[in-house]
Amino acid sequence: MSTQDLRFTQSHEWLKMEGAEALIGLTDYAQGELGDIVFVELPAVGTHVDAGDVLTTVESVKSVSEIYAPVAGEVMDVNVALDDNPDLINSAPYAEGWMVRLRVDDASSVDSLMTADDYEEHTKG
Amino acid sequence: MSGMTRGLKTALYEKHVRAGAKIVDFVGYAMPMEYTGIIDEHRRVRSTIGMFDVSHMGEFYLSGGGALGDLERITTNRVSALDEGRVQYSAMCYENGGFIDDLLVYRLPDSYMLVVNAGNKQKDLEWVGSHIGSRTELRDASDETALIALQGPLAEKALAKVAGESAASLGYYQSVASKVAGREALVSRTGYTGEDGFEVYIEPDAAGPVWDAFMEAGAEFEIEPVGLGCRDTLRLEMGYALYGNDIDEKRTPVESGLMWITKLKKGDFIGRDAILELKQDGPKESLIGFELKERGVPRHGHRILSEGREVGVVTSGTFSPSLEKGIGMGYVARGTDGPLEIEIRNRTIPAVVVPLPFYRNGTVRSR
Asked: How many Cβ pairs closer than 8 A exist between chain A and B?
């Protein structure tokens, strides 16, 4: 799928704006690095996070990785399908593998995130 | 995230890269962690055949009239019980009973071969070298030896197509010199996965051709190359100790469940007195297996609690692909009973002690 309408962070989260809310997940590159994901610890709905706060924790067979909030906002929803099928992050990182829906505090904060092209450059490094 | 490794390379390194393996540094070696995914590879070994490159392991040869007596003093198991062609799991301990390493001892026609952990090669070589007499010769063949492990319930069928009958019909923990794909090899029916399988020792020059021959012979059984990632999940499901995690210089056979390879009645050996004393007094801690009752993945270093009080530390932990739950091993204070909790970051997950091995359907002793 196209990732052109997504924004990215250096720490390998993606964000997709839908009105005032943003879907957040882990990039394809990052899921490939982590390997088979077996457990995702999701935040409680209603939690407020600042940019850079730990949003979720993702456990793969071999390691654990923290996923950070790309921007500040309130957790409106989490992808409960990941409880039973955490491997959706491996198989469909930009679709069924989304993790959190965030109501973004300040829409302009998204502008500072990387574009798809920037991110591609970033992961080549 | 993984970075570049500039480590030592096995003879099969280029094959791993071409196959798209994720390469990691393992005790100085650039080794394949996984090819398609740890869980897939784990299931491949449990269901048909997986093939590992474990050429990083160390191989030493001891020969001469003093070899048997010296090995009997250096290792904990009874070397004199080894008939020619047999293989034995054993350990080397310090005088205080702490593990130097765990190892395999092969009795070959004219020598003994010791197979040791890659990360302990230098330490082991120095230890063995300084504890043998003038009638024993020690040779480090690690750099002239490649090692391929063919593991899984159908491993025998693939091996039989490229090796002699003497190799394919080996009994458990037996070895034989055999041609494999036309190359000189030492084959043993051994492994570290809980499945039936073979380990094949060859010259590095033969590693590529033998690897390719196994891939071809195993194609009809859906053989796949598999990495160190699933090697760890497979061995942990069997409760096999990993040096550096579950056993180390601070642990002895008494608390780590390895008295079955420690023969106190065989006569004197290095570490015997300390081990005997500890056995009589009873160890303060012992190695147990546990499984999580809720979702989570225990890891090396996590604290083990009982009624909120720390009683031990996780030495190995993972997500078990076969049981589909978090499993682990760790040392807990003697007398620890009842439910446990594992402290995973900011949470405590309920756990219960279970007998080892975790996985009981392996084909390892089917021969």
From this structure: 42
Contact flag A39-B295 (C-beta cutoff 8 Å):
yes
Task: Give the number of C-alpha atoms closer than 13 A to the C-alpha of residue A113, restricted to the C-beta side.
Answer: 28
**Which residues from B are below 8 Å from A59, CB to CB?**
296-297, 319
Q: All domains of chain B, ordered by start, with CATH? A: 13-53+145-237 (3.30.1360.120), 58-138 (3.30.70.1400), 284-354 (2.40.30.110)
pLDDT, averaged across chain B: 96
Cα dihedral across residues A54, A55, A57, A63: positive or negative: negative
| Yes or no, beta carbons of B319 and A35 under 8 Å apart | no
In this predicted structure, the answer to whether residue B2 has a pLDDT above a threshold of 50 is no
Residue A99 included in any domain: yes
**Does residue A69 carry a pLDDT above 60?**
yes
**C-alpha distances out from residue B344 to B28, B300, B305, B317, Å:** 29, 10, 11, 11
Domain harbouring A86, CATH code = 2.40.50.100
| pLDDT surpasses 70 at B88 | yes
> Which residues sit opposite B347 in a β-bridge?
B344
The verdict on residue A98 lying in a domain is yes
Q: Do A30 and B233 touch (CB under 8 A)?
A: no
- For B41, the closest chain A residue by CA position comes to A36
Give me the interface pTM, i.e. the ipTM.
Answer: 0.87
Q: B360: helix, coil or strand?
A: coil
A15 lies in which domain range?
7-69+79-110
| Sheet of strand B224-225: strand arrangement | B175-180, B183-188, B197-202, B146-151, B50-53, B224-225
B contact set with A (CB within 8 A): 1-2, 22, 33-34, 37-40, 229, 232-233, 295-297, 299, 318-319, 321, 326, 345
Q: Answer for the pair A114, A8: CB distance below 8 angstroms, yes or no.
A: yes
In 3-state terms, what secondary structure has residue B328?
strand
